[in-house]
Write a structure and sequence with these properties.
Low-confidence stretches of chain B: none
Strand content of chain A: 25-35%
Oligomer: heterodimer
Mean pLDDT of chain A: 90
Strand order of the largest sheet of chain A: 2-1-5-4-3
Helix content of chain B: 40-55%
Strand order of the largest sheet of chain B: 6-5-9-8-7
Shape of chain A: globular
Largest sheet of chain B: 5 strands, antiparallel
Low-confidence stretches of chain A: none
Shape of chain B: globular
Number of helices of chain B: 9
Number of strands of chain B: 9
Radius of gyration of chain B: 19 Å
Mean pLDDT of chain B: 90
Largest sheet of chain A: 5 strands, antiparallel
Chain lengths: 112, 264
């Protein structure tokens, strides 16, 4: 299993990005991470990994992307070919739409 | 039978779902729940209140007028509710509201009395107007809302500001852990059970703050889960376009979304 070395770089490239993590396996486990999930209200990436399958697979319909929107931050969970990627973004005056686009771009660049 | 056990039984009428459930209660009385095409039209418990009393109380229609309409109904063999509207005593919306409340209160009365027998009787249907019939999900949610002292119609109106008739959805009371409203867009009985259980699980795991929301997006549509105070909302859509519109409404409406309305 390859571990992506570029998470720190990806996070550094987007100032609003507070954390990125890659999860793989069943049950999902944290393969690599940079930064923290705390801004989006999570105490650890492990907690995010634990709830991710419920959000992605067990809801009213299976989805490939989940957005948790808080007043000042967002968490994007994205099912990518190399695993599930979580991206935490701080919201700025640029708005939630811009943050969501940046989170999607970041998630798409993470390869497992 | 408890409320949800009774509804699990009502949810499986023989096809085409038009007929009546003849119900006997432990106190020796009986009642009926009528359905058309799988939707609830009317329920009554012989120990419950009368629709005419409800209409008199809620809409100020005097007793003599009601008696006159009842006489006309018997002469012309026409339904009481429709005649009240035809005679200009109440509006169609008021009739629908009164019928719904009477039905839900009758079902609650039946459950309270202890349902021990529930048998299906086929019939041709009474030709109820579509707007006066409601889904099982709407009925059970309205029953729960009434039990909690909430206004079912106010809750449904709040839910519809988000789902707007194009998505299916629910409102769940987080503390009671029960659904208190279901959308006009039908939610099947099995969906109701699985959706509100899942919504409560996710809400508990994510510790959703008030006015926060979660949105899932996939090739088969998506969902939006939000929380305001003690109410959790869930909207489910089957197309990306509808999902986009629901998400826009959630993100713009949540700061002012007022949902807990006391009964008038």
């Amino acid at each position: 299993m390859s571990v992506p070395p570029e998470l720190d770089q990806l996070r550094g490239a987007t100032p609003q990005c507070a954390g990125v993590a890659l999860f793989q396996g069943a049950p999902l486990t944290v393969i690599a991470s940079s930064g923290e999930a705390a801004l989006a209200g999570w105490s650890s990436w492990e907690d995010v990994a634990e709830i991710a399958p419920s959000l992605l697979e067990e809801g009213p319909s299976a989805v490939s992307e989940v957005l948790l929107r808080l007043p000042e931050a967002m968490l994007l969970l994205s099912a990518q070919p190399g695993g599930v990627v979580a991206v935490v973004m701080a919201l700025t005056k640029a708005g939630a739409g811009v943050a969501l686009v940046q989170a999607r771009v970041t998630a798409s660049k993470v390869s497992g | 039978m408890g409320l949800f056990t009774l509804f699990a039984r009502l949810a499986e009428p023989p096809r085409p779902g038009t007929g009546g459930w003849k119900i006997r209660t432990g106190d020796g009385h009986q009642g009926v729940v009528l359905m058309e095409g799988g939707r609830i039209c009317w329920a009554n418990h012989d120990q419950g209140g009368r629709l005419s009393d409800e209409i008199e109380r809620r809409f100020g229609v005097d007793r003599s007028t009601i008696e006159q309409v009842i006489r006309l109904c018997k002469e012309r063999n026409k339904p009481f509710g429709a005649s009240l509207v035809e005679e200009g005593c109440i509006t169609q919306a008021e009739l629908a509201s009164a019928l719904r409340e009477h039905t839900c209160r009758s079902i609650l009365s039946l459950v309270k009395a202890g349902v021990y027998q529930c048998e299906w009787v086929h019939h041709q249907g009474g030709g109820y107007a579509a707007e006066t019939t409601i889904t099982l999900a709407q009925t059970v949610s309205s029953c729960v809302a009434l039990l909690k002292g909430l206004n079912p119609e106010g809750l449904e109106a709040s839910l519809e500001t988000i789902v707007a008739g194009e998505a299916a959805g629910l409102l769940v009371h987080a503390a009671a852990r029960l659904p208190i409203s279901a959308s006009v867009n039908p939610v099947a009985w099995s969906e109701l059970r699985s959706w509100f259980t899942w919504a409560l699980h996710v809400d508990g795991a994510c510790h959703l703050a008030s006015q926060a929301f979660l949105a899932g997006r996939g090739p088969k549509g998506g969902w939006v889960l939000w929380r305001v105070g003690s109410i959790i909302g869930l909207a489910v859509s089957r197309s990306e376009e509808v999902q986009r519109r629901v998400l826009l409404r959630v993100s713009s409406a949540l700061p002012d979304w007022a949902v807990e309305q006391p009964r008038p």
